[in-house]
Design brief:
Blueprint: H1 5-29, H2 34-43, E1 49-50, H3 51-58, H4 62-74, E2 78-82, E3 90-94, H5 96-113, H6 122-137, E4 146-149, E5 156-159
Antiparallel strand pairs: 1-3, 2-3, 4-5
Helix pairs in contact: 1-5, 2-3
């Protein structure tokens, strides 16, 4: 791991931007944004998801997600229904056309990333990044200090 937080942050930011740029180049050919791809990816599990989960998965603020969801509904890729368990919430699902679109996008992105699957520490990197994200979200504790996300209602920084 990098010695200083700014070095680690630089490496993570560089890798993330290069990865997004690479995925976006594939998605551009298919007229899809990275955010739409992320939404379709989450919905591909067939379970239906609420807007909060979709916003978190796509890294979008609520108003931007609403606009994106309206576009996906207009394209007949997604539909929204009231959650039968909690009628105050709305769940989004893929339409049959949305499933086909997601399968095409997933196939093309996987094909483009095939050369990266042979990285020596691929699985280990996945585990390490997951642990880092969980630690930064405050799920893992170290000693008596806990790092939190800074979302509304939570303290920012280290809590004692």
């Amino acid at each position: 791991m990098a010695r200083r937080p700014q070095e680690l942050l630089y490496l993570l930011t560089r890798a993330e931007r290069l990865a997004v740029r690479r995925v976006q180049s594939v998605l551009d050919e298919l007229d899809c944004s990275v955010e739409a791809w992320r939404v379709l990816d989450l919905l591909s599990d067939g379970q239906g998801h609420n807007m909060t989960a979709l916003a978190d998965h796509a890294f979008l603020p609520a108003p931007s997600l609403t606009k994106l969801m309206d576009q996906l509904v207009d394209q007949n890729l997604v539909y929204r229904r009231v959650d039968p368990a909690d009628r105050r919430r709305v769940l989004a699902h893929l339409t049959p056309r949305g499933k086909q679109r997601w399968q095409l996008l997933a196939r093309e992105v996987r094909a483009d990333w095939q050369d990266l699957e042979d990285l020596p520490a691929g699985e280990e990197l996945d585990v390490l990044l997951t642990e880092l994200a969980e630690a930064l979200e405050g799920r893992l504790t170290t000693g008596s200090a806990r790092v939190t996300t800074g979302r509304v209602g939570k303290a920012v920084g280290r809590a004692r």
